[in-house]
Amino acid sequence: MSQAQINATLAARNILTRLHDVMAARTNAQAKLNQVVDIIGDSLNSEVCSIYLLREGVLELFATRGLNQEAVHVTKLALGQGLTGTIAKNVETLNLAEATAHPDFQYRPETGEEKFHSFAGVPIVRMERAVGVLCIQHVEPRRYLEVEIEAMQTVAMVLSELIANAGLVDAQGASDGGAELTHSQREIGFPLVAGLASGKAVFHQPRITIEHVVAEDVEAERQRVYSAFIKMREQIDKMASQAEFGTGGEHDEVLETYKMFAYDEGWSRRINEAIDSGLTAEAAIERVQQRTRMRMRQIDDPLLADRMHDLEDLSNRLLRIVSGQIGTAAQMGLRQDTILIARNLGPAELLEYDRRRLKGVILEEGSLTAHVTIVARAMGIPVMGRMRNILHQVRQDDHLLIDTNENSVLIRPAPQVIEAFEAKFVRSREKQAAYAALRDVEPRTKDGTRIDVLINAGLRDDIAHLAVTGADGVGLFRTEFQFLVSATLPQRERQLRLYRDVLDAAGEKPVVFRTVDIGGDKSLPYLREDGPGEENPAMGWRAVRVALERDGLLKVQARALIEAAAGKTLNVMFPMIAEPWEFDAARQVFEDQLNFLKGRKKILPDRIRYGAMLEVPALAETLDLLGPKIDFLSIGTNDLTQFLLAADRAHPKLAQRYDWISPAILRFIRRVVKSVEPYDIDLTVCGEMGGRQLEALALLAVGIRRLSITPAAVGPIKAMVRSIDLKAASSRMEEMLAHPPANMRETLQDWAMDQGVELG
Fold first, then answer.
1. Domains along the chain?
2. Beta partners for 512?
3. What is the C-alpha end-to-end distance of the chain, expressed in Å?
């Protein structure tokens, strides 16, 4: 520990000792706050120390040392207003050498703060919500040391207890508050794992209120934390050994990464440093956890955010153990069909629940690559994420309905809504049964055209869907998923095992492996680039661009794929090819590795078929150059469409612009179909577009004969294919593209209904 850290720790301990005496004194709350700002100012050698508290929805200056006393109870700021309001709204820390340079700075003349330059502020947090702000200021412009900020955050925890006990903040600041929740409502979220679910709301964990913040005996608190760490690690090891998903899978790697966090020495060291400053074990864990939450809010990288979620999960577990409040909803047992609600979950916590009773999960946060999502998908549990205020909108035992098809959660639905949902559930099961009956039926149109229907995959377990759906093969295996769930770069042996398992599980059916598509919005912390972040990550340094620059990464993957396909056909596809030379360069990496392994007398694939992803529109202009070199071409409709329309597919205001059934998109795809006709090329459409019945109809009508889609869409697409006269559909599409109607989607849908096409 550096001298600065030692000094800050001693200062924090001195502050806590003096605050303990203040809190025990028989004086009113205002007098205590007046003493508090003097104590903090003295201990941190601060010229200004101020406390703002949330009252009636605004931040009010309650006590200050260094600013004009006339401003106390006069200066008020709305949430988000000024530096103080920004800290409270975002629950974040600010550390500024020059306060006036910050875009949110607002000058309040009554305070007399114009002579002060440097500023630092931390939120005073109660029940995960900012109920106030603690600020310090100096005349001299300077950034405060990290240890000084940590001392302020420690003090803010004590202040939280003091002001809550004194009843100084809004009542809702320390609880869910708000009006009585009785009315029905519909909330929109982001589907993470598809499905329908009905059940009673159960909160993953009750809130733990820390009653004692200041430690009486530091060594005793340290021993409590040590014991809690031992118990927590035993729990994690036991759960990981008992998890049952079948044989193998990326979720196994997820749990290994999760265990790595449980044994992380840096995390335990930070908690011990918080105890050194004078906090109890519970307060120290919460102190580090608050810091983790603040960091999470500042992280744009979804993978790093997922890692922080794992750490938050472990913090919750450790806090429950050390406080003796270890009963989560899982430990207490589920008594009925349940929809679980949490801000976020770690994979181990999800594994604790009775899978017979757990029908769905709703998360305030969550992402498609989060560890809990991977495990939930393996368990077959629908998950709705990014429901920002769900914890404050739902009561325990409220009836909830999850419908990922509608991206919605229905809260306290009316009886008629429940009845309609149950009917939808029944119809869904009946449809699934009807689609399952098509497993061994060929997807052939009414006029006899055979359509190849393949699946997209990214997990070892996804290959089981080939047998369940009767799909013709895997048209897209996303190899980057193994990289996204791993804490470190997957070594060749791990990649080799995955690819070999996938090929073995697929049997005689083909598998197209897409080389790793990372970078942009799928960045990896262990391959992080220096420099500023990308403004347009989808169009940035990603996919084959990264692979060709970091050719060691592509070489390792090439060797693993070639060795895994020994004695078989290897289908390999390169993503985001914009010009033919990129394909040539990527293929050469594989050819070099093939020659290397040949020299080592390794068993080689019988054949390697090379392909490219057409996601960048520019590639369509050089298909005459690329065509003779490739065995297959896959149109990636997700990226291609947003590039063609200049419409970010994730932007809510552009959702209506991101329509696949548009003349521009369909004409473009038809042109690609015609461009590759002179070559012996398999042309496939990969992506969400091919998995929707109306969109798939449009694709077939412009000449597409191979679709690679999500496994859940195979049955519906087969049913649609068997219901159409392809010649009639193609003729109608030619008319529509020659003279586009005002609404292509509605026109095509009306035609399909008139023709009796199966559209679900």
1. 3-176 (3.30.450.40), 183-206+329-430 (3.50.30.10), 218-323 (1.10.274.10), 444-526+537-755 (3.20.20.60)
2. 571
3. 65
- In this structure, the dihedral spanned by the alpha carbons of residues 721, 726, 728 and 734, taken in order and rounded to 10 degrees, is 110
Which tokens sit at 615? 């996601």
- Residue 485 phi/psi, 5-degree rounding, is -95, 0
Secondary structure in 3-state letters for 128-193 = CEEEEEEEEEECCCCCCCHHHHHHHHHHHHHHHHHHHHCCCCCHHHHCCCCCCCCCCEEEECEEEE
Radius of gyration of the chain (CA): 30
DSSP 211: -
* Cα–Cα separations (whole angstroms), residue 617 to 31, 289, 347, 581, 635: 69, 46, 39, 16, 10
Three-state secondary structure call for residue 195 = coil
Which range among 221-235, 252-266, 312-326, 351-365 shows the weakest confidence by mean pLDDT? 252-266
Q: Which span out of 256-265, 275-284, 452-461 was modeled with the highest average pLDDT?
A: 452-461
User: Which residues make beta-bridge pairs with 458?
Assistant: none
pLDDT given at position 175: 39
What whole-number distance in Å separates Cα of residue 13 and Cα of residue 662? 66
pLDDT band at 15 (very low <50, low <70, confident <90, very high): confident
Q: Calculate mean pLDDT across residues 440-468.
A: 90
Backbone torsion region of residue 577, taken as left when φ is above 0, otherwise alpha when ψ lies between -120 and 50, otherwise beta: beta
Phi/psi at 32 (5° precision): -65, -45
* Phi, psi dihedrals of residue 740, rounded to the nearest 5°: -60, 130
Looking at residue 206, the DSSP 8-state letter turns out to be P
51 vs 716: CA distance, rounded Å: 61
